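Loading example: each entry is read as two labelled lines plus one structure line.
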Amino acid sequence: MSQTFTKSMARNIFYGGAVFFFLLFLALTFDTHQALPKRDQRHLLDSATEVGQRIAKGKALWEENNCIGCHTLLGEGAYFAPELGNVYVRFGNSKEAIKAFIKSRPENGITGRRSMPQFHFSDEELDALAEFLKYASEIDTSGWPPSKQG
Amino acid sequence: MKYQSQAVAKPYFIAAIALFVAQILFGLIMGLQYVVGDFLFPEIPFNVARMVHTNALIVWLLMAFMGAAYYLVPEESERELAMPWLATLMFWVFLVAAGLTVAGYLLVPYSSLAKITGNEFFPTMGREFLEQPTITKVGIVIVALAFLANIGLTILKGRKTVVSLVLLIGLTGLAVFFLFAFYNPTNLVLDKYYWWWVVHLWVEGVWELILGSILAFVLIKTTGVDREVIEKWLYIIIAMTLITGIIGTGHHYYWIGTPEYWQLWGSIFSAMEPIPFFMMTVFAFNMVNKRRRNHPNKAAVLWALGTAVMAFLGAGVWGFLHTLAPVNYYTHGTQITAAHGHMAFYGAYVMINLTIISYAMPILNGREANSPRSQVLEMWSFWLMTISMVFITLFLTAAGILQVYLQRFSDNPLPFMVVQEKIAIFYWLREFTGLVFLIGLILYIWSFFAAAKDAKAGVGAEPTGAAA
């Protein structure tokens, strides 16, 4: 680098750039928070309602069974098993179909193939998981995924 | 070594390599499960193997970062570490916490681990890379704070260099952004939004500061180039990192419920994210070309140059490949992401840690460099691991392109599992290449034992010479 470009100039670009762009990021984050209520279906999450309670319980079950360790949800997670952000739509807008699938997984897997474990969920737990996945499918994801197959 | 307390780095490096081995073994298990779906099922289901694979990676990288800091900060500050006993204590706390957590993953079902550790009272588990029980996360915060206090105090009391200041800023950012791991609302969009504040702002933000600082340190030591020149480069590289990388977080906000303007912000800024990596490559080669001495540790210099090249390829080029919103619409959450993830983590963070370990371990063992035989072994391991990682990335990229086409782009998109079977050949190739990587890792470890044996027999490194 030329001699006119000094170390203190480089330092100033670093500190100035880091602070400026972090503040810009905070401003965009603030704006995102203003825009989210129209997109993130938060009205469903009211914990005073039964639906809201089911979604919260469904998300807890989702997490406590590490579903993200095989599946993606809105494209994030592991790539071993199908995307579940739109599974409600893929299964014909049916919570019952989701519940039936989870319930019917064989205890010892399928010979030679990938298989979802049998989690022995109660009916109430299956309801909660299906409600959570329905909620996930209703988030406005700007048209993603490109195909129903996820 | 110049300061006695630098020795605390040694157990960190050794534990890091041990966890690296665990990471690779579980990677091979997962790779096989991709093609032989019932392998080890239901004893070690895929999600458990993946947790061990990714968490072992994170912990060993953190361990090695800490070892690097404990090694280089005393030397940069020209004084002993403020509290060497605390560094040793924290090593054992960290190792035991990591060991118990991995044991928990493997010995009980994940839901039982959640129950045992009281996840319902403070739920933070079950999110990608943040699977650790809440209590483990608290442990990580304690270790990080004790570590920062130790490093910070040493820097404060001693000589302040750009290398140590940048390292301190990076490590502080690492600790601060980890705190977002404790925020887990039911609102999935907010959950994901701030989850990225840990994941993205770590790997495409503050970790790059740590990477730059370690690379600068090793280049100062091995090339003898004037510190002023190297520090100017360091500043300008990390400036570009944060200028592009902070708003670049937007490339994760395309399809998770966040407003659509992120597609523009994210595309523009993340398209520039390769720039600092490219500068890093130019920087490393320039410094080595302008070297004023030939350091006897040739393996360390090879790792340093390799880091610069592979970080640019993995993080820069493979990141750019799918970062523009119109492309990412199709590639988001496919094997393309996995391809990028593998080469980026290997090229940037695995290799920088192997660089500092390669440089520091001989010195910690009382010699400037290892015997020629040991270095040749280490260089073989460099090429075996690096070339196999290139091929792993290429195979996963091929799998990803086919997956995108068959599952998302063609006129009749096929179901996920149908597509997985059609692209299985690439998973097989990836698995075989993974075995070559393992051979490279075994050679790497063997090189340490060869070095120790030669040192005992009195075989030294080649003498230091002036630059040609």
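Strands of chain A lie at 72-73, 76-77.
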